[in-house]
Structures are given as structure tokens and as C-alpha cells.
Write a structure and sequence with these properties.
The protein is an all-alpha fold and about 130 residues long. It is built from three helices and no strands. The protein has one domain.
Length: about 130
């Protein structure tokens, strides 16, 4: 199908679930083989395997918000249980939960960024798949 400027537009449906799973694994949402990230959070301009352009992404603060939401939802009940059931020293609780929260956030952040980029790719948002 041609667009108004004469370029061909890819109208084939993209699988959202598998693209998001590939993003979680920090792989290219298109082929699943190439790495999505160049550094800890830097998205590559294109996939080195299938050459899919990835620079269109606009993940902004979304992965950070999701990370805080998930870490808070997981840690809050655990913290409440630990304080009420175990009655530990406050310094021990603070130390253990601080390290746990930071570790969980560092684990989740690049994966959630991959999921957001993959979702944008699958839904053709922000320029993904406009011109072929």
C-alpha cells in the first residue's frame, strides 16, 4: 500500500506478545536475534542482524515509572510482613530492603525499556514501520 508521498507502507500485523517478550530479553523486537541495547539503557539506532531501524523509540520516563511501581508493589507487602512477623532491628531492615530495592530496580529497568520499545515497534508508534 502506497502512502501519499509514494513510499510503500508495511501493513502486516506485528505480533505484540512475542515482540514484548523479545524486548524483555533485550533483543530486537523484529528478529529476536540482535541486541536491542548498546549500553545499559541506550537503544541501538538499528539492529545489527536484521537492520530494523530502532531510533524511532520514545520511551522517555515510562520504564522508570513502571520500575518504581513494580518494585513498590512487590516490596511493600514484604516489608510489612517482615516488620510485623520478625520484629527485626530497624537498621537491618533498612539495609536489607535498600539493597534489595536497588538490585530489583537495576534488574527491571533495562528490561522494561526493552518492553516499551518493542510495544512501540509492534504498534507502529512514533515512526516505526511508516516507510519501507
Amino acid at each position: 500500500m502506497a502512502t501519499t508521498d509514494g513510499h510503500m507502507c508495511d501493513t502486516e500485523r506485528r505480533p505484540v506478545g512475542s515482540a514484548m517478550l523479545r524486548g524483555w530479553r533485550k533483543k530486537c523486537p523484529s528478529c529476536g536475534a540482535g541486541p536491542l541495547l548498546a549500553d545499559y539503557l541506550t537503544v541501538r539506532d538499528h539492529c545489527p542482524v536484521c537492520m530494523e531501524e530502532l531510533h524511532h523509540h520514545h520511551s522517555d520516563d515510562g520504564p522508570a515509572y513502571l520500575t518504581v511501581l513494580i518494585v513498590g508493589a512487590l516490596v511493600t507487602p514484604l516489608l510489612a510482613w517482615a516488620v510485623s512477623a520478625l520484629d527485626p532491628d530497624p537498621l537491618v531492615v533498612t539495609s536489607v530492603f535498600t539493597v534489595g530495592c536497588v538490585a530489583l530496580a537495576l534488574y527491571l529497568l533495562p528490561r522494561l525499556k526493552g518492553v516499551m520499545v518493542a510495544l512501540q515497534w509492534a504498534k507502529r508508534m512514533h515512526g516505526f514501520g511508516e516507510h519501507r
